[in-house]
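Ticket #4471: structure output looks truncated?

Reporter: J.K.
Steps to reproduce: submitted the chain below (119 residues) through the standard prediction queue, then opened the result file.
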Amino acid sequence: MNKLVIGMASSQFIRQRTIDIAAGRVVPKKGDPKIWVSSMESIGRLLSKENYAMIEAIRQYRPLTISDLAKLVHREQANVSRTLSRMADFHIVELVETNGKKQPVVNWDQIVIVPAMAA
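Returned output as attached by the reporter:
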């Protein structure tokens, strides 16, 4: 089972961790979060009901293009593309380019939220 690990911490903690990683003072471990947010509201926006429905459509129907996904979820292609780009920035989806078209892919089965103290 693949896990999407999301870290939750203060903006200051996230910023300092990023600086420490860039400076080589911290080496992220294999299970460490790749996504860091500063509040549950941030997670809620990323995984809103509408966005989660899109994730489920990707899993269930495996659309070959963003256009195919837009038709499945009855949303404008530009809006779906914008949302997927943001989700890709946070590693929630992957956009695999094939023949000049991007295929949305979900590579996780479970979401784990880790507070900074345990990260």
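Triage note (M.O.): checked the attachment and the full token line is present. The helical segments are 11-23, 40-46, 49-61, 66-73, 77-89.
Status: closed, working as intended.
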